[in-house]
Amino acid sequence: MSLPLATFSQESPKNQIAIWHDNDFLTLTDRYYSFGLGVDYTRKWKQGIFKNTREQIRFQLYQKAYTPDNLRTSSLRDMDRRYAGFLGLETSYTVATQDLFEAKLLLGIIGPNSGAGGFQRWYHKNIVQYVVPSWAEEMPNQFHTNLSLSYKTEWQLAPIPFGVSIVPTPSVTYGTKDIYAEMGGEIFFGRKSPIRKSMAYGQIGDLEREIYFSIHWNYRWVSRNVLFEQNLPGLIQEPNSHVKLTAYKFHHRFNKNEYRVGYYFVSSEAEGLGNIKYLQVSYARSF
User: Fold this and answer.
1) Which helix (H) or strand (E) segment is 116 a member of?
2) How many whole angstroms separate alpha carbon 43 and alpha carbon 12?
3) Are 112 and 84 in contact (CB under 8 A)?
4) What is 13-286's CATH number?
5) Which of 111, 165, 200, 277 suits a disulfide with 141, CB 3.0-4.6 Å?
6) What is the mean pLDDT of the chain?
């Protein structure tokens, strides 16, 4: 005797909570972009603003730390950049059809009030028992805002189960913290849902299984990066106008669980600095 398929169906989730962590320690660098730690909450709207679309809102609270190459010194003469911590709250709104449009508003604090310096010192002293960064001459407290707009579309080259697709990812960001434009793309290999359903773009509401590998690249034209713009005399004052990013990522969605692992490589953000390498891991649960 067979049972109706509906017996095994699950209710479509409308909410999701995710936690993620970036760290360059495992890449044996521990410099520049040193770590990131965040939690996201996403809500899918049952009835959106526009017709025949999927719309959702996301709130992301995160903390990031930026450090010089030399962690042992307290003297500016031996630093290639200032310590900087950032605590941000980002709100994003996405509208998905066959394409995806996203708007983001970021509010945040740079400086000691971000808590990044205190957290990293505690972590290095008590957990990894590695060199405890001095966090001397940290950038002072200052409030910043950014607005970002992005667009994604998808070109499918081969169907699933071993699908291949390419997604252009242009975006622009303007604010007191950053001003830049990006042009890039991502190529996916494996079982990935269309844009309006895929975890690749943070879309929730579907339980269709996804398991894929991707290669991501971006070319960024930078006009402002306040982390360098407000450095003290003798340190780097201007960011590089061109920055390249490459990432290799593995994603898996099984039922209401999502798992992500990514390795990121960023070219030098300013003259005299080296490249940035870090690993990102995240887990999300829909409900």
Assistant:
1) helix 116-126
2) 12
3) no
4) 2.40.128.140
5) 111
6) 90
Return the number of other C-beta atoms located less than 10 Å from residue 127's C-beta. 8
pTM: 0.90
Write down the domain spans for the chain.
13-286
In degrees and rounded to multiples of 5, residue 253 shows phi and psi of: -115, 125
The identity of residue 247, as a single letter, is A
Euclidean distance between CA atoms 107 and 212, whole angstroms? 33
Predicted pLDDT of residue 182? 97
CB 166 within 8 A of CB 63: no
Query: Quick one: which H or E segment has residue 277?
Result: strand 276-286
Q: Cα separation of 100 and 53, whole Å? A: 10
Low-confidence ranges of the chain (pLDDT < 70): 1-10, 230-237
- For the chain, helix, strand, coil in percent to 5 are 10, 50, 35
How far apart (Å, rounded) are the C-alpha atoms in residues 115 and 144?
A: 16
